[in-house]
Structures
1.
Amino acid sequence: MKTRIDKLLSDNLNLSRKQVKSIIAQGRVKVDGAVVLKGEEKAEEQSVITLDGKEVAVSKFVYIMLNKPKGVVSAGNDRKDVTVVDILPDELKRKNLFPAGRLDKDTVGFVLLTDDGDFAHRILSSKNHVEKTYIARIEKNLSDEDIERFEKGISFDEETQYLGAKCRMVGDRTAEVKIVEGKYHQIKRMFLAVGNKVLELKRTSIGGLELDGSLREGEARRITPEELDMIM
Ligand code: URA
């Protein structure tokens, strides 16, 4: 598919159309070796685009792994709070990024940000059974009976029924839970339903992709195409 060069450059370099127009007019952009002087010219996705001789990595969509810290909200923008998009480094920022799935303000861990709405829908729909794994520090250890209730599917109140979730104790007052849905405060409410309480919560993986252990809280990096395949 052919896309306008000014759009490709502004999306992938996080520059305004005006900035891109001026860079192009200065003759600094080449497509497959030939200087381009007009932003409306088009390039194929596989074209090699260079700016000042350096190749620009262009892709239609972007996928980012963020290790979300506490105190940050899972939204594209928010009038009051700092968002997961606000804390991305400039080189990763791109228009239309949003978190594919929300973590509560006090939950930490893996947030996937993308501008690919179809992909986000696929990983979030419970029909596709993409498991999200959480580690919860809880008030008291779960009994075998509690674990059985998690596995069968718990109801929180008359209107809220959760699908079965895999659950196991992985340490003292520490449980690992895998869910395929992402309902409001789901993990916290599942524990409340068995008379327990989540004290701290971290998401550690989405599908088969684990949070990169070298990312400190607040740090982010692009997800590679191979890693993207591991999610579904
Ligand atoms: N479940 C919760 O209760 N909180 C989160 O942030 C994610 C899942």
2.
Amino acid sequence: MTRKKLMAANWKMHKTPDQAREFVASFLPLISGHHRDEIVLCPSFISIPATIEALQGSRVDTGAQDVCWEQHGAFTGEVSPAMLRAAGCTHVIIGHSERRQFFGETDDSVNRKLRAVLPTGLKPIVCVGEVLEEREAGVTEDVLRRQCSLAFREISAGGAAPIVVAYEPVWAIGTGKTATPELAGEAHRLIRHQAAQAFGEDVANRMRILYGGSVKPGNAALLMSHQDIDGALVGGASLEPKSFAAIVNY
Ligand code: PEP
């Protein structure tokens, strides 16, 4: 089964609209020969329109970093899946570890957001991954099983096709410590097994599972050459056009 790789930039709370435009102006020429993978930039909400406008006519998509589980209503400060669609987003990150760690995101809210996003046609990138204490305690598999089974709850096999999962061991995010391809591959196989249990083998075999955690130009090729790694979610190294282009062109 060949799965088209997805290379996603998570800009976190960086880049004003002007800085997003500047990035795109430098980045697009660096990837002009690239036709292999799906590429998406995920700016902050405020920089989404500028990013979409700057990317017009290119093959690069725009995604959001979070979303509400409702389409409209009295939810001050939130942005709905329908609003992201209307703005021109194609992807959305759900359940990033920073949202879990700092903003009270739970397995239950991840599931609610995923169920709200799927009918809109946005492609969700659902983040899962263990913290260092969990890896050291030998419970990584239990954590991934729990995160996946709760995220996938009450989603039909028919509706699950757009789901992308990002395996992001939290100890590797922003730390410079990267999981080996073998270690990531093991986690990806477990995640695919959970997807098969929830949605059947066919959907699971087509599902893209990205790796995230200190992906850099120097380690992208090795990680991407592993048969179970279907792309990357990149934080720090996606902030500079040259380094994200080097990762995309691994
Ligand atoms: C992330 O935030 O999703 C991430 C993987 O960050 P970094 O690449 O900086 O580790």
